[in-house]
Amino acid sequence: MMALRAICIVAVIGFAGFLAFAWRSEIPPEQPNARPAFDPALVAKGAQLAAVGNCIACHTVPGKAAFAGGLALPTPFGTIYSTNITPDAETGLGLWSEAAFQRAMRQGVDREGRHLYPAFPYDHYTRVTTEDSRALYAFIMSRDPVKATAPANELPFPFNVRLILAGWKLLFLREGELPRDASKSEAWNRGAYLTEGLGHCGACHTPRNSLGAMDAKRPFAGGEAEGWQAYAINAESPAPVPWSKDSLAQYLRHGWHPNHGVARGPMAEVTGNLGLLPDADIDAIATYVADIMGTPSPQRQQEAQKRIEDASRRQPHVASAALTQGAAGAGTARSGAAIYASACATCHDSGRPQPFGGLSFRLSSAVNAPNPQNIVNVTLFGLPPADGEAAPVMPSFAGVLSDRDMVALLNHLRAQFTDKPAWTGLEDLVRRTRTGEHKVAVRPADGIERAPANVGAEERR
C-alpha cells in the first residue's frame, strides 16, 4: 500500500513537472498601427529569405491568396493544415510582435503559447540568425492581409494534444544558431547556413524515425515529400551521373541540368523560388551539398562518362525495332519494350536537348533509384505545362496505360537502362498511386501545384 502511494506521488510530481516544463506564456498582442514602417531594403531581404524557406509552398492553397494557409499537409500521424501567415489581425499574424515571431522560429511556440507541430520546421529555423528572422518578419508583415481560417487539424488522440510536443522537443529540438566552421570556406559556411537553416533541405531529404524526427545518423540519405521520394543527396545519391558543384548550381538556378533532367514535384517549387536568390547564394548551397555528396570514385566517374556518351548516341530507329519485336512477341499483353517504343521513345530517344527534350533513361535518377515512386508518379501524371511561358512538358499516361501496362513498361526501363535489381511491389505501388490512396502533389516546372489530372490549372491567379 505504501509502495503504491509512493508511486502515485511520484507520478503526480512527474506530471506536474512536465506541465511546468511544457507551459509557455502568451506574448501580448501588438496592434498593427503601433508597428513602425519597415525599411524597404529589409523587406527585400526578407523576400529572398522567404524564397529560400519556400514559405509560399506550404502556406498557400493553389489558386487562392498567397500565404493565406489552409493547405493540407499529410503526415504519418494525420493531416495538418498550414496556418494563415498574412498580417490579418483576426486569422493571421497581424497581432504578432517580432518577439512572438522570433519565438516561433526558435522554439516552435505561437504567440498564444501553444506548441507548434514540427510540420513547421522550427528544428531547422532555430538555426536562423536574429537579423534574418527580423527581415523575414518584415517581409511577412508587409504582405496584404487576407482573412482566411485554416481547417482544424485532423489528428487522432494523443497527437491532437499539443502539450506532448514539449516532449518531442526535449528529445529532438536543439535550439541555437548554426555555428560557423572555421576550417571551411566562406561559401561553404554560407551554404551550410542556407541548407541547414531556412532551406531546411534535410526536412525532405533525410529519413525520419517513428516519432517523425529526422534520423540524425543518416543525414541527407533520402526521404519523402508530398508523395514523392526526395532522393539521397549524400554519398548514397542514386544519380547515374554524380552531381558536381557546377551541375548542382545550374539545376538549382534553372530547374534542370542536361545530365539530370527537369525538377518536378515539390522540387519544382523549390527551384522556382530559388530564382530570387543571387548567384553567390546558389553557388554556396551547391558548394555545401557537393561536399556532403563527396568526391565520386574513379570507377564511378568512368561509368558516368560512358552513360553520357551512350545517351548522346540515341537513335530513334532502335525504338522502332523494339516496337516491332515487342508487338510480335507480346500476344494479347503488350510488352514493356513495345509500350516504350510507342509512348516514350519519340521524346526520350529523340536526342532533343534538355529542358524540352526527354532525358535519356540511362541518365535518370528515377529509373536508377531503389524506390520507383517518382517514375510511377511522372508516368501516370506527367509534367503539366506552365502557364504563359515556355516550359518542359510531359503527357499524363494514366488514361492510356493500364496498371498492367505500367508495370511492364517500368520493368522494361529498369532492366534496359540500369544494372540495378528489379523493383518489388510495383503492382501495388502503381495501384495505390493511381487511385489516390497514395497522394501525390503534381507541379509543372514553374512549381505551381496541379491536381494529378491537371484539374485546376485554370484556377491560377
Q: What is the compact description of this entry?
A:
44% of the residues lie in helices and 4% in strands. It has 461 residues and is mainly α. Strands 1-2 form a two-stranded antiparallel sheet. Strands 3-4 form a two-stranded antiparallel sheet.
Layout of SSEs?
Elements: H1 2-22, H2 40-53, H3 55-58, E1 72-75, E2 78-81, H4 98-107, H5 122-125, H6 130-141, H7 164-172, H8 186-196, H9 202-205, E3 223-225, E4 228-230, H10 245-254, E5 256-257, E6 261-262, H11 266-273, H12 279-293, H13 298-312, H14 316-330, H15 336-343, H16 345-348, H17 365-368, H18 373-381, H19 403-417, H20 426-435
Antiparallel strand pairs: 1-2, 3-4, 5-6
How would you portray this structure in words?
Residues 317-332 and 453-461 have low confidence and may be disordered. The chain has 20 helices and six strands. It folds into two domains: 10-172, no CATH class; 185-209 and 217-301 and 308-314 and 351-461, no CATH class. The strands form three sheets. It has a two-stranded antiparallel ribbon with strand order 1-2. With 461 residues, it is mainly alpha-helical.
